[in-house]
Design goal:
Blueprint: H1 2-16, H2 23-46, H3 49-88
């Protein structure tokens, strides 16, 4: 019970600290936190929560970084389309 309380407090403080971050920083942070939590859960089932948390954090960070690159490319494409549409008028 105590472990869940500590985990809930840490998660609340981490997510609550996202208020002043950029979209990129928020995505990277939440991906890392989510990866850590998921990795720890899988690691606990497998027998080594610390290793699972480490692997989950790495996977969450890489996944969040790649997703962020995709979102940035999508935004640039949108902006190019808007500029091209405005240039036609």
């Amino acid at each position: 019970m105590r472990t869940r309380l500590v985990a809930a407090i840490v998660l609340a403080l981490t997510v609550g600290g996202c208020a002043g971050l950029t979209d990129t920083e928020q995505r990277l942070l939440t991906g890392t936190v989510g990866g850590t939590a998921g990795g720890a859960a899988i690691g606990a089932i497998a027998g080594n929560a610390a290793l699972g948390a480490g692997i989950g954090a790495g996977a969450g960070l890489v996944g969040s970084y790649l997703w962020n690159l995709h979102r940035q490319a999508e935004q640039r494409a949108f902006e190019r389309g808007v500029a091209a549409g405005q240039a036609e008028n």
